[in-house]
Amino acid sequence: MTRLAVIGGGWAGLAAAVEAVSLGASVTLFEMAPTLGGRARSLEGTGPALDNGQHILIGAYKDTLALMRRVGGDPDSDLLRMPLRLRYPDRETLRLPPGPPTLAFLRGVLTCTAWSLQDRLRFLATSSLWTLRGFRCDPALTVAQLCGGLPRAVRDDLIDPLCVAALNTPSTQASALVFLRVLKDALFSGPGSADLLLPRRGLSALLPTPARAWLLSRGAELRTQRVQRLEAQGRQWKVDGEVFDAIVVACTSVEASRLTRDLAPHWSAAAGAFEFQPIVTIYLESAGSALPAPMVALRESATEPAQFAFDLGQLGQHPGLFSLVVSGAAPWVAQGLDATGAAALAQAQRHFQWATPPKIVRVLSEKRATFACTPGLNRPDASIGPGIWAAGDYLAGPYPATLEGAVQSGLSAARSAMRQPVGATSS
User: What is the b/e burial string over 254-264, where b = at least 16 CB atoms within 10 angstroms of the residue's CB?
Assistant: First the structure.
C-alpha cells in the first residue's frame, strides 16, 4: 500500500487526501491550523458562526460539487442555486435566464434595460469577437485594456465587478487572458454553468467537516502539525523524519516555497514570488432587516469599499446578519480594518433601508486571500520532483485562484502520486 503524506488541509489537500484514499493509499494529512478548510472555512468561537470570508461557487464547479457529494455532502440543499444576476440597490442589470448558454446570454443581454440598446449591441458584438477568437487574447493585456472599447455602463455594471469577484484583482491590473477563460467556462460551458451557488451553511459544513469524517472513517490519519522539513531518502521521502512513498504539498504557496527550498530551488523560487491580494469581509447585524435579494452588487469608489453584500438570513443561516465583501482590498487594508469597516458600514447605510441601525459584528481580513492575477504571471507546475507533487489554486493553469482550481489540483496530484509512487511498497 502506498504511503502518502498530504501537507495542508485546505480544499486542495482535502481533495488530494480523499482521492488518494479512494485509490487505495494510506494517507496521513498534516494541517497546522486547528481546523480544516484553509482559506475557506468557518471560524470557531462564541456567537453566530462566521466564515473567514464570503465565498461564491458557480454551476461550472463540477469537480467541487462532485467532491462534496462523494464525502456525504448535499450541495443541492446546502447551496442556493440562482441564475447569474447582478442586482444593485437601485436597479437590475444583467440577469441570465435558464436554457442553453449561448441563447441565455443573448436573451440576458438584449433584455437588460439598464443599458441602452446601442450599448447592448456593442457588448454582443464584442463578446462575439471573443468567441470567434476562442476566448484568447494577447497575454500582456489587462482586463481594462481588453474591454476599453466597451460602453462605460457595461464596464461599470458587469465587467469590473465580475473581474474583481473572479480574479480578486482590479481590472486595471488583472490578466485579460485568465478573465476570458473564466467567462468562457462560466457563461458558455453548458446549461447552468453561470448559476450562482450561495452557501446556505457555513463553509466548513460544505466540505471540510464531512471530508474529515469521511477520511477518518476510512483509516486516514489527520495530524495538527506544521511540517518543518522534507528530505529525500533514496526513492522515498521523509516528512519530519517519518518515511513516506510520496508527498502532495497542498499548503499555501508561501509554505510550499519554504518546504521545497533545498529540494527544488527553482520551483521554490517560483512558488515564493507571488504578490497577493487581500479580501476583507465586514459582518453587520441589524435585527428585522433584509436586503432586496440574497446577494446585491455595490459600486465601489474611493470612499465606498464593498463590491457585494449578502443577506445571511435569506440564505438560511442567521436572520439579521449581513456580510459586505471587499475584494482586491489592498488600498483599504493599508488604511486599517477599523477605517475599512467604518467606510463599509456607511456605504451600507446609504444604499439600503434598515429596520434597526446596523452594527459591525466583526471585520475579517484574509491578507493572502489569492495571488494577484496579473498578465504574464509565472506560476509553478504541479510536479516538484520525482515522487513529490504540489496542489493548490496558485499552480500553472488557465484559472484564477478559485475553490474549483484548488480541488482540481488536489485530485490531479493524488492521481499522479498513485500512478508513479516513488518507492511504493505493497502490503
Answer: ebbbbbbeebb
All three cell numbers of 12, joined, read 486542495
How far is residue 175 CA from its own chain's centroid? 16
Rg (CA), the chain: 22
Phi, psi of 17 (to 5 degrees): -65, -45
Could you give the CA distance from residue 293 to residue 86 in angstroms, rounded to a whole number? 10
Cβ-contact 258, 275 below 8 angstroms: no
All structural domains of the chain? 3-73+201-274+376-419 (3.50.50.60), 84-194 (no CATH), 276-371 (3.90.660.20)
Strands (E), 98-220: 196-199
pLDDT in tens, 60-99: 999 999 999 999 999 999 999 999 999 999 999 999 998 8
pTM: 0.95
CA distance 375 to 238: 37
pLDDT tens string 320-356: 999 999 999 999 999 999 999 999 999 999 999 999 9
| Region at 248 (left for phi over 0; alpha for psi -120 to 50; beta for the rest) | beta
Which grid cell is 152? Answer: 462605460
